[in-house]
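Take a sample.
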Amino acid sequence: MGRPRIQPSAVRPAQSSSVGRSSASAASTERLEDVSRLLRARSFWVEGETPAAQRVRSNLALGPAQLDPAAAVWISGGKVPPGRLGISLDDAAALLGPHSFGFLNNVDGIAPLAAPMAERPRLGRVALVVPRRDALPELPPLLEQRLLGVSWLISVGDGDPAEVLRFLAHDPATTGLLLALGKGARPQSLLDCLGGKPAVVLLPPQHRDLALLRAVARRALTRVTASFEEWLAHGALLDAGFGPASPGRTVARRNVAKPARTSVLVFGAGADLVQRELATLRMAPPLRVDADDALAVEQALGRAAEQSELLILCGARQQLLQLRPPRPAVLLDSSERDRLRALLQAVHVVTTPTGQHAQVVLHAVRERLESVLGDLPPPLYVAGEMVSRELLSDHDVKRLLHCYGATVTRQAPVSTTTSALRVVSKLGTPVWVLPGLPPGDDVTKVASAESKEGVLCETQAEVKRQTSLLLGQHEYVLLREVVPRGVSLRIRTTSERGLGPTLRVLPLVPGGDEQAEAALLPLFADDAQAVAQACVGLDGEPAAIESLATLLGQIAACVVEQQLEGDLVVRLAAEPVVIHAAGVLRRER
């Protein structure tokens, strides 16, 4: 009698009740309305006599806001009274906070801000959402110094920035976002609120899951950086209207519009320094302009505006402030080398074509897949109930992956020395002779157990002898080809609450957890490229990056369609290959 086959099926998204959805939506809407009322407020009450509270009063006095004990918005170092909208300057819970330093409504000139602000930054189109004050440099004076135009500066402290981001997504004065993440950032909520407007995310130095934050940001088409200077540089481009592509736009590598051109003009001294920085990125040399010749300045600006979409103007601050460029422009001092380098790098990033933001679609070889599924044992029943999670062997997981085109080690299970010699004649020597271990769900344990009992055999005689010895202890023996040495990666599928299935990738080296990457499933092409590049390295060969991205897509397609929880070790040799595998098959009841 033939064994029943498991039919391949796609993953079905978890269904939630309509009651739960409407309740969550109502709660989110109510909170968003509260955040909007707080940020649009013109009347505040500041509680306490701490230095932070006194600084808030001082900044409020510079604008049209009023202090009123009956105000709906309270700014406090303690608990906010019931029924009031609060900003917590200390460790209490509030709409902004704990440890918020308030906000700046630069459109209306209202600044309930517990930070030094000699004068307000220039009005612009970029909103900054940041954590607590000690996580970043003093932003108000820095923004004024950099001439970066902003619409809002909002500190969420250690809180979740999700509702503030939703508010800014509907704010007509804001066209771009600079988001600095803190300890309160949650990948699950960020996925729902990013993507409405072009944004750049500054990652925190430490977080419980940096890899997942990067994965969520990529899925929302949001640029990610760990460099403060690069973050501000992208903000300057956003303020100039020269930001990332609009969310939802698909950019294919072989079918992209001509990159937007940039002209760099240097007024006065400093042209040699600027030229060296441009040369490192293979950009055109700067145009030198005599700052004292008004006609030459006007003509240079006009010519540059005809040729370019963005002008980068370098010179002395007072000279730059007098210019009236006909195109969007970024102004900076020629001597600010780090800032210039970050700005040019940001321009390079924005104008470089990216991978296609579309789901990786791969189909298994149907006949091969049916054969593999048909060879699996029938479902296991315990007390009349089918076991929904079945452990698969290394060999079965690899066979499933191979159906989707993934490169796996050439290997075969044998139960006699005769069949072992037949297999080794095809694999060649040297060859690994490994014990037939019971299935497991942790690939590191499987690999460790294989290394303890496995033997590398150089001749057929050794293969015969070791196979005979291992068959005395195990039901079968596995013969596997020898893979060249190289960097190894652990790739596993996990289920993240609020996000669903996720692919986790980390190097199998000391400290590899700190270099971990993640991607949401189903996998997108640009996600696969980004993860592959992070694993191979920025200086890695394009072919190596492409081959690893392809393998990630094949693995993702298999685990999603077959409802497989995979745990794999991949060797980055001449071609990435799966060398160890463990997995759990989720059977439908």
